[in-house]
Every structure is written in structure tokens, then in C-alpha cells.
Write a structure and sequence with these properties.
GO terms for molecular function: oxidoreductase activity, acting on the CH-OH group of donors, NAD or NADP as acceptor; zinc ion binding. This is Threonine dehydrogenase-like Zn-dependent dehydrogenase. Keywords: Metal-binding, Oxidoreductase, Zinc. This protein has 350 residues and is α/β, with parallel strands linked by helices. The chain has 2 domains: 207 residues, Alpha-Beta Complex (Quinone Oxidoreductase, Chain A, domain 1), CATH 3.90.180.10; 136 residues, Rossmann fold, CATH 3.40.50. It contains 10 helices and 17 strands. Strands 3, 4, 5, 8, 9, 16 and 17 form a 7-stranded mixed sheet that branches. A 6-stranded parallel sheet has the order 12-11-10-13-14-15, with helices on both faces. A two-stranded antiparallel sheet has the order 1-2. A hairpin with a 5-residue loop joins strand 1 and strand 2. The chain is globular, with a radius of gyration of 20 Å.
């Protein structure tokens, strides 16, 4: 079969790979939807051979890209019980493989494996930008019948990541949250937080993305490039107090600092965007306001399933995240457009 590989310096290649065969405890999926994630761009833009290292997760040879897999179980290996997986089942994939038995893996947090994550699909192990994908049965998460494969792909990373961060913040319906960055993760957070009943302040330097945030439930939109003081602007619409919670999905150092400064006393700020740094003045920014800073790295298999159930039960239109739907053979054009980071989310559909 042919799979998409990040070849380096903003190029993708179609390379031949053997059709996967499941080993003991494994399954093969027929991929129906494979999402495009902002973190893919770090690998897409990296120098040749540096794709996985661009995410700080080690080195690898040529692997099939795509870490938002969703599809149908096509084959099961020895030792896979029907409760784990059955042919024809609609599933998402938790896109990490750990040891499977340590305290983190056994609770669904395979990316936190005590031995170090063994594979990140689409980065150090073959991902979903191909007709088929092999993975351990324990990484599968059921896709509710009400949800499309595209929605499942979004929940498999971007939307699931937003869900995980909002759960870490313990966001409540009577609270206000400011969400910095309205790319796929930030927009997902806006959509979910609005569905939870929270008042949402959405921030982005793209007016197009702010328009989408408004349509996804944002109550207030702010373009940081057009206001003299972002923190003051947030305080102006929160009775001078600041937001109860903030979420940074931008990876911008300035936005991260502002997200901490913009919470009220006893507020919580959550960092989701990968990489980069932030500089804070500890006493006024943190200590003397009792501020909590939280780091949130994606989600567990349990959290992924809970997110899917929440979306299905409440009829949340996650499909609306996608501005671009592609066939796999259009991968070169798709990533060229996605690299501009001005629109919404893309997905490859079979």
C-alpha cells in the first residue's frame, strides 16, 4: 500500500509499505478518516530525517504520517477478545503505544508510560495517512454510531486534547474562560466550553478564525494585534476581575504570559500548545494571586471515550471544525494549504 511520509522541508512523499498484518494482541484498521493536526506542521516543516525529533520524541526512519486515526476493524490478531475488538467495529485510536502494564498505561495514559512511550503513531510508528493501519487492540476506543468518522478523527487528537484540558481546569457552566489561539484545538475548546455552558472569550490574530470562533459559541472575540493591552481587554469584559480560567493553544510566549496574567485571583491557566517557553514574574503573576498553572498533554483512552460520548449525547457538530476534506492522493496540496494556518481543520477521507 502507499502511505504519506513527511520527507522534510515542507514536502510529502507517497511511499510503498507492506500491507499490515496483525500480530498477537493487534488489529488492522481500514482507515476511513485521518485528521490533520497542528503538531503535524512541526514534522512537515522539519529538516529531512528530523520529523519525530521536531516533537521532542526521539528519532525514527520513514514512517507513515497521521496521528488522528479513525476507521473500521478489518482484521484481529491472536489473543484479541471480542470485547477488545471485532471485525467491522467502528473505532478511534489512542495514538500512543506504551508498555501496557505500568500504572499510567493501565489507566489509559500510555503517553506517560514509565518506560517511555514506545511509539507515537504518525511520528515514530506508522500512522493513519494510508489505507490501513496496525495497532495494539488496547489502543482502540469505540466510536459511537451517531458520530461520523471525521468527528472520530478529530476526537482522536485535537478535540480530545481540548476536552482533556477543560477537564483538567474543572470548568463549570457559571465560569468565564479565555481561550488563546483558535486553531483546531482552540476552536474545539471554544465549542466544547460553550456546550458546557461557560462564557467563552476567544483570542486569535486571525479575524477569519475569530469569525469561526463566534459561530462556534464564543461570547467575546479579541484580536491581540488590534488591542493595546490584551490582559486589560479581558478584564474589561469580566467586571475587572479576569477570567476564571484560561487555556493557551497557541504556543506563543506572549499569549502564555497573558493567559496567566488574565486569570482572576484563584484562577487557573492551562497550557496545551506544544513547545516554546514563557517568562513570568512569579510574585505578581502567581504567588500573590494564588494562581494555578496546569500542563495538559492530550488525554487518556478513558477521556477519549468520555469525550466521544459527550459529543454524541449532546449532538455537538464537531464535523463543522473541518473546512477542508481531502482524498489521500491530495496530501501535497492539503499540507501546503494547512501550512498557512489561516483556515480551519483538514481531514483525509476514504
Amino acid at each position: 500500500m502507499k502511505g504519506v511520509v513527511f520527507a522534510g522541508d515542507r514536502t510529502v512523499e507517497f511511499r510503498e509499505f507492506p500491507d499490515p498484518t496483525p500480530g498477537p494482541g493487534e488489529v488492522v484498521l481500514e482507515i476511513k478518516a485521518s485528521g490533520m493536526c497542528g503538531s503535524d506542521l512541526k514534522m512537515y516543516r522539519a529538516a529531512p530525517g528530523e520529523a519525530a525529533r521536531a516533537l521532542g520524541i526521539g528519532e525514527t526512519g520513514a514512517v507513515i504520517a497521521g496521528h488522528e486515526p479513525c476507521g473500521v476493524v478489518a482484521a484481529v490478531g491472536a489473543g484479541v477478545s471480542e470485547r477488545q475488538a471485532r471485525v467491522g467495529q467502528r473505532v478511534m485510536v489512542h495514538h500512543y503505544r506504551g508498555c501496557g502494564v505500568c500504572p499510567h498505561c493501565s489507566t489509559g495514559w500510555m503517553q506517560l508510560c514509565v518506560d517511555g512511550v514506545a511509539e507515537v503513531y504518525g511520528a515514530t510508528g506508522h500512522g493513519a495517512h494510508a489505507p490501513y493501519m496496525k495497532c495494539p487492540a488496547r489502543t482502540l476506543v469505540n466510536l459511537p454510531d451517531q458520530l461520523s468518522f471525521a468527528t472520530g478523527a478529530a476526537i482522536a487528537c485535537g478535540t480530545g486534547t481540548a476536552w482533556g484540558a477543560l477537564q483538567r481546569l474543572d470548568l463549570k457552566g457559571d465560569q468565564t474562560i479565555a481561550i488563546f489561539g483558535q486553531g483546531p484545538v482552540g476552536l474545539s475548546a471554544t465549542q466544547l466550553a460553550s456546550a458546557m455552558g461557560a462564557r467563552v472569550i476567544a483570542l486569535d490574530i486571525s479575524d477569519e478564525r475569530l469569525g469561526r470562533a463566534k459561530s462556534f459559541g464564543a461570547d467575546v472575540v479579541i484580536n491581540p494585534a488590534q488591542v493595546p493591552d490584551v490582559v486589560a481587554a479581558i478584564r474589561d469584559v469580566t467586571h475587572g476581575l479576569g477570567a476564571h480560567a484560561t487555556l493557551d493553544a497557541s504556543s506563543s510566549s506572549a499569549a502564555r504570559r497573558q493567559s496567566v496574567q488574565a486569570v482572576r485571583t484563584w484562577g487557573k491557566a492551562c497550557f496545551v500548545g506544544e513547545g516554546g517557553n514563557v517568562t513570568l514574574d512569579v510574585s505578581p503573576d502567581l504567588l500573590r494571586r494564588q494562581v494555578t498553572i496546569i500542563g495538559s498533554w492530550t488525554f487518556s483512552t478513558v477521556g477519549q471515550a468520555e469525550c466521544a460520548t459527550y459529543v454524541a449525547d449532546r449532538g455537538i457538530d464537531v464535523d463543522a471544525l473541518f473546512t477542508d476534506r481531502w482524498k489521500l492522493e491530495q496530501a501535497e496540496e492539503a499540507y501546503r494549504l494547512f501550512d498557512q494556518q489561516t483556515g480551519g481543520k483538514g481531514v483525509f477521507l476514504s
